[in-house]
User: Fold this.
Amino acid sequence: MAESTSLLFNPHTYDPQHFDPETRRLLRATVDWFEARGKRRLIEDYRSRAWLADFLDFAAKEGLFATFLTPASAAPEGDDDRRWDTARIAALNEIFGFYGLDYWYAWQVTVLGLGPVWQSDNAPARERAAELLTRGEVFAFGLSEKTHGADIYSTDMLLEPDGDVPGGFRATGSKYYIGNGNAAGLVSVFGRRTDVEGPDGYVFFAADSRHEAYHLVKNVVDSSKFVSEFRLENYPVAPADILHTGRAAFDAALNTVNVGKFNLCTASIGICEHAMYEAVTHASNRVLYGRPVTAFPHVRRELTDAYVRLVGMKLFSDRAVDYFRTAGPHDRRYLLFNPMTKMKVTTEGEKVIDLMWDVIAAKGFEKDNYFAQAAVEIRGLPKLEGTVHVNLALILKFLRNHLLDPVDFPPVPTRLDAADDAFLFRQGPARGLGSVRFHDWRTAFDAFAGVANVARFREQADALCAFVETAAPDEEQSRDLDLLLAVGQLFALVVHGQLILEQARLTGLDEDLLDELFAVLVRDFSAHAVDLHGKDSATAAQQEWALGAVRRPVVDTARSTRIWERVEALSGAYEMAP
Assistant:
């Protein structure tokens, strides 16, 4: 049992010894708080849509948000525990997802709300944010609008110069779909000046949800998550409230999303892990027609596929952390791996839940299970911080440089050190994606060339390179986003496989599990190739290539049986206290 469960988060055995003492204490304290609360109370809070006051009181008492979300540059002198450390932030995301996305959401939008502040040179605003965190306050990110969504070019939050306050403004306008808008001690709000045209008129400023000119309209969702609509009416914006102006405000918006969207992948992992314990335990103890449900071959296949997909999600996300933490002005590879975590890992999470739901069927609807909320909440993650389509389109910008034109980089080690990831708040202008370069993806595959399905998938990856060189979409097809997204799915699989293999080498993952996982990826690549073949605008050459890229995974019944035994060992490995 230890071999299978050690790859998944298990509250009963969780001991993150790879972190420093205070990080370990806070992570374990968070787990213990949820476990003491119990499953019944957790589910009842979810169903009753209760605001998260008890949880936020716990977080404030422990200094959880203040410790994890205050960068070293804003920490009190001598406080080495406060830093922005992506590795431990990822660990906390996973824990929150495991117990309920409502808890994660309050934390996630606090991360987003802090982004423009920590990128700002406004020292009083930074000090104010650090003090609010110390007091246990949450934050909000006022970017999206009801009419324009997250189209920041078209914001209707207008700032008029305040004739009574030199350098000040009066802000009027609405924001929509803003998490924590009901309680945030500081809301980072994006708007534009009425007296300056174009990008030079953009402004990011800090607002207080308790101010009399801040009007909370409603919660736009039926949930414990408070996803607000609010309106500012002649809200006074003093010079001390201004975080960014002009193009720097635009860059701060996009760079904040770069930081925040990374959190979605590990939240989805936590959701899937809890749901998997429930699903495997239920299926293993269910008898139909005189046989255990898990004796049926299709059930074993679905649960095994779900398990290896989940392991792949974890491997990819853990490795992506290393690139985030190693990033700098001359190494921006994270700009590819970040949207990958957002769209690929979260959509894998949907597949994991669906595979398990096919097995447990009606059990997945029952109100006393975690699975019922997992099946709902897993859907939201691919749709937050930019849709799957938006992130696939972003990924495509890196396709040629990644596949065809590698350059040398120093090896990136595992980054679990207690360091402050300062570069994330000085990313600079949000442009120049075409100049981002990558190391050779083939190196990761070469290290596992002896694993049958890694070699089989490598054939498909090499075929994609040939496609880009000989049958890539022409200028007219480049306007057909439907076709391009199909190509993007194929490219995403190659990147997904690459980081999985890099992490497998660093962690010594056994080859049985890797082989079974890549059998799934081979099938996925073939399915996306067939999808490309059927696109309306696909040329004859592209259609021929697509069918030629279809491969059958290497079948090894003994290997699959060994992996199934690991899945089966999850039965009863964890159950939350009532």
Q: What stands out?
A: The radius of gyration is 24 Å.
